[in-house]
Amino acid sequence: MVSPFEDFESNLAGEEGKTPETRTSWFKRLKKGITTPSSEKKETPEGLWSKCPECNYICTINDLREALFVCPKCGYHHRIGSDEYYEILFDDNQYTELFDNIRSKDFLGFTDLKPYQKRLEETWSKTDLTDSMRVAVGKINGHEIVVAAMDFEFIGGSLGSVMGEKFSRAVDYCLEHKLPYLIICKSGGARMMESAFSLMQLAKTSGKLSQLADARLPYISLLTDPTFGGISASFGMLGDLNIAEPGALIGFAGPRVIKETIKKDLPPGFQRSEFILEHGFLDFIVPRPDLKNKLGTVLTLFKN
Question: What is the mean pLDDT of the segment spanning 25-52?
Fold first, then answer.
């Protein structure tokens, strides 16, 4: 009797019409079960590929790094840390890090989901960062400059007493050596675990910038994605030049909070750097591949 069902396996193997006795199997397992030890299993390593959150373009991490972490297809600027910015900006990646011996302390014994001290220790163990800001001095196209860069990886790049102290000491270094100052902002705002100690940094850093202005030394603020809260309410918007990367989210409160407060829909592109530029809060937007040369030109103009 002919089976009413098609023999898919025999079709696939090119053995249609043969009997089970004459049909030769295209695959035979010599040993039963999987005998490969777990230690010898080969898996695809993590971190080799990256997917653009804007256009879903997939490329290798090496290709993305060569493009300075800018999507080759749509130009989306991926978030990067201080190490990557220093590599992009400083000539031959040569720089000297300053004030890297300062660490945060839990003055208040603060606890939310976990004690603040434990949160700090976990972050120190997972990263090579001592806090949410690093300060370095080096040369950009031959111009010596102090650059302070925030790291979102460290508790959301939040503004605490250590960041305020590093910022202030960087200003003092600029005053002593007559150097311009660049801040690369990337933060969710003030660090709630330090309460008033954190909020005091807004006035402290703004006051130090007045000393820089009195000495007629340039201060440039580069706003990257995201720049929020106490950063945009203080030194983030006080630059002689306020510049930003394309598509960066910049503001004080988030779009969702604002929408729920005013009970109205927000305009397209609200709080993005292009929207901020159009409304007069920025001097210009510079793509990351052009950043070093643009800063070199600006520093030459300031010097002359």
Answer: 65
**Tokens at residue 3, please?**
């089976």
Amino acid sitting at position 49: W
Say how far apart CA 191 and CA 193 lie, in whole Å: 6
- With left for phi above 0 and alpha for psi between -120 and 50, is residue 25 left, alpha or beta? beta
Cα–Cα dist 208/176, whole Å: 13
Phi-psi region of 142 (alpha: psi -120 to 50; beta: other; left: phi over 0): left
Query: Would strands 133-140 and 49-51 be described as parallel, antiparallel, or unpaired?
Result: unpaired
Above 50 in pLDDT, residue 296? yes
Q: What pLDDT shows up at residue 3?
A: 55
* Token pair in block for residue 81: 């840390």
Which of 25, 22, 31 minimizes the C-alpha distance to 9?
25
Q: How far apart are CA 177 and CA 171, in angstroms?
A: 10
The single residue listed with the structure tokens 């050596």 is: 177
Q: Which residue has the tokens 């002689």?
A: 240
In the chain, the N- to C-terminal Cα span, in Å, equals 97
Torsion sign across C-alpha atoms 291, 156, 238, 171:
negative
Find out whether 170 and 99 touch, Cβ atoms under 8 Å: yes
Whether the pLDDT of residue 302 is over 90: the answer is yes
Cβ–Cβ under 8 Å, residues 53 and 69:
no
Query: What is the pTM for the complete model shown?
Result: 0.82
Q: Can you read off the two tokens belonging to residue 48?
A: 């080799």
Residue 299 reports pLDDT greater than 70: yes
Contact 215, 252 (CB under 8 A): no
Distance CA 13, CA 150 (A): 60
Cis ω before 226 (30° cut-off from 0): yes
Q: Is-contact 175 211, C-beta < 8 A?
A: yes
Q: Cβ of 249: how many Cβ atoms within 10 Å?
A: 18
In this structure, what is the dihedral angle of CA atoms 175, 187, 230, 273, given to the nearest 10 degrees? 90
